[in-house]
Amino acid sequence: MCRLLGFAAPDARSLADAVGAVQMATFCAMARLHDDGWGAAWTTGGGAPVRTQRSPRSGYEDPALAALTTATPARAGLVHLRLASSGMPVAPENTHPFLDAGTAFAHNGAVKPVALLEGLLPDAARHRLRGSTDSERYAALVRHRAVQLGDLAAGAASVVAQLAPLFPSSSLNAVLLTPRELVVVQASAGARVPHEDFDASGLAEHELPTGHRTGYYQLWRRRSPDGTVVFSSSGLRTDGWEPLAPGTVVAVDLRTLAERVVPVTAGAAAPAPRSAPLPATPPGQERHESHDRADRAMVRT
User: Fold this and answer.
1) Could you tell me which residues come within 8 angstroms of residue 253 by beta carbon, excluding any fewer than 6 positions away?
2) Is 80 exceeded by the pLDDT of residue 124?
3) What is the pTM of this model?
4) b/e per residue 147-161 (b: at least 16 CB within 10 A)
5) What is the C-alpha separation between 298 and 296, in angstroms, rounded?
6) Does the N terminus or the C terminus of the chain have fewer Cβ atoms within 10 A?
7) What's the average model confidence in pLDDT over 6-29?
């Protein structure tokens, strides 16, 4: 359960310039609750490769996150604040976004049981996994299906159609970035709001971000007069924004900023699920266990 923010613009600018300084500060402050790491991906456009920066530290008042969102120019980018699912280690390899084959992927939700999800992957995709999260496996399945269908948005829509009946209480919301497009998935109709995490956070009710109790999984979209488009999870002020429709995938062409909407449909045939064992969680790596360790690495690619 995490926070997502993505944008595409007609020229290079920082994420804070795209969304507004006050809104950017509000988003970063949500790392007080979503404190299991943060990550970003961006491209400068013109087919330039996607770069990422990730840290398993909390982004709350982290100068590295502040610097990246205010001083890194990009034509398109995304930021992810992680609230780890119970039992998932807080570690660099489990920090979003996951970058593979030029596609960055950030997820908001929990897809369990993870073994069932991993069983849907072909062997080649399974062997490329680096961490233990459901989100990385979801990302790998989307990339695999996108190759099969020749289209990233169609691949994402096909995977959502496959996973939704298998994991009816899961959120499959996601933001993906390639050198050519930004793709946003709104698919969380049956997802359960993690009220227990809010209650255990130590935050007073009035300190919880806007909409967390009532619209936690809703994604919002805003387009500016210059064509800049921003997508965000709940928590920001949404005056002038519009909610994404359930069960849709939105793709933004980074060259033209044109949008296309792909409904969630069955797509290509999928292999039958099969169980696959996960690596054991190393002792001492449970959720929140290592928040204050000084040896946590920041990963930049």
Assistant:
1) 180, 181, 259, 260
2) yes
3) 0.88
4) eebebbbbbbbbbbb
5) 7
6) C
7) 96
